[in-house]
Amino acid sequence: MKKLHITYKPIILFIVLLFSMGANAQTDSVAQEKFNVKEFILEHLADTYEWTLLSSEDWHVSIPLPVILYSKTSGVHLFLSYKLDRGNKNYKGFQIAAEGKYKGKIVEMGRDGSETRPLDLSLTKNAASLILSSLVLIITFLGISRVIKREPMKGNKGFVGMMEMFIMMIHDDIIKPSVGADYKRYAPFLLTVFFFIFFNNVLGLVPFFPGGANVTGNIAVTMVLAVGTFLAINLTGTKEYYKSIFWPDVPIFLKVPFPIMPVIEIVGLFTKPFALMIRLFANIMGGHAIVLGLVSIVFITAGMGAAISSSMTAVSVFFSVFILFLELLVAFIQAFIFTLLSSVFIGMARNA
Amino acid sequence: MSLLTPEPGLVFWMSIAFGITLFILIKFAFPPILKAVEKRRNYVDESLVAAKKAKEELDHVKEIGESLLAETRKQQTEMIKEASKIQEQMLEDARERAGLESEKIIGVARKQIQSEKEVALQEIREEVTKISIDLTEKILREELSTDKAQMKMIDRLLDEIEITS
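^ inputs. structure came back:
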């Protein structure tokens, strides 16, 4: 009984803390305007020009990131993002659009008040996060490879041993059976894809600084990954594979007057990586959206009295934790599926 | 929907980041890892096979050793048996020879004893003859001291000769 009592103590403390938070939220809410959930979620899912660490109504703590722009009228511009704060601050004719088609993006204001979008190569939050995670990935795997290379016959313990098992699990259970005979040629590429996705997925679940960016939930990122797979499939496909696309083994009337089957096959070429792109993007973005939605319960119920707001806060935290655990699973599953399907597609192209 | 349109800037940075990561990991990180693990696996497999083979060989050697031992033991018992047989034979022979020898010695001794006995008897006989002749002489001297007695003696001797003849 004593043991139980001890384990419950922090939980009781936590609930008390939540109650007090709820009460605070209630007093503040008088000043707040109506909380817009959709706005809140979309804002957090979108890419930003600065890396916000902490923010409140009045102040922000953020890391400024470089903004790189090329405009047809005024040429190349390079400056740090703090010069364009949220709102309508204008710098050299550029500002972040608050409304309309380019909402949240940098636009160039014409003299007549028209907005044009320059070529925007800014190192945004997602781009910075990508570079950071790529660096970590490179350092980690080069380190592992060095440790293993030093003593190849020794079984490794700790982190290296774990990663070795992880790598070999992907290698033996996904790549080897799916790609087929010449799996050795594709294994490094597929392993890189897996760990790139997995690492960014997990990093995206960390709510504070090194993480927090919605990287793999961004369609630009998954598009590049899917293009990589597309190239891997089609640049190394065999003659039989191309024959099965342009001259498939079907009755002649499906090919000659109007090439129905080749058209379907060619469309299929693009739908495969397209499905990969959408699947990864939607799953990760959806997970983030659910967590954000659950968190916003706290803010929605803030003005509804102490009892409701505190109990709903507890519910929100409980479900957020639950969904985060689920997302951890999804982070692995999506990386797994992306790699598995890529392997299968490559295997189909190699063994057609 | 801005969420569904890929941002060219991010595509650019993603291509660079992913490309560099891909290049480095494909070139330097994964091949050595896979190679090393493959090598280790092969080594373990080979070691297992070798261990199995060694065990079989060891079993074989053990078998040979055991059979050898058994054979040796058999030989040993046989040898012991033979040795004891030989020993017995030798004992028997020795006994026999000893018996013969002793008989021979006894025979020689007997013969010697016999001859000595005969010599002794001869001597005794001679002695007795001598003594009896002496005695006879003495007796005869006394008895035949007179003529009468001498005559009587001659008569009787004659009678006796007559009777005997």
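The beta strands of chain A are 50-55, 60-64, 66-71, 75-80, 94-96, 106-109, 115-116, 119-120. Residues 61 and 299 of chain A are 21 Å apart (CA to CA).
thumbs up if we can close this ticket
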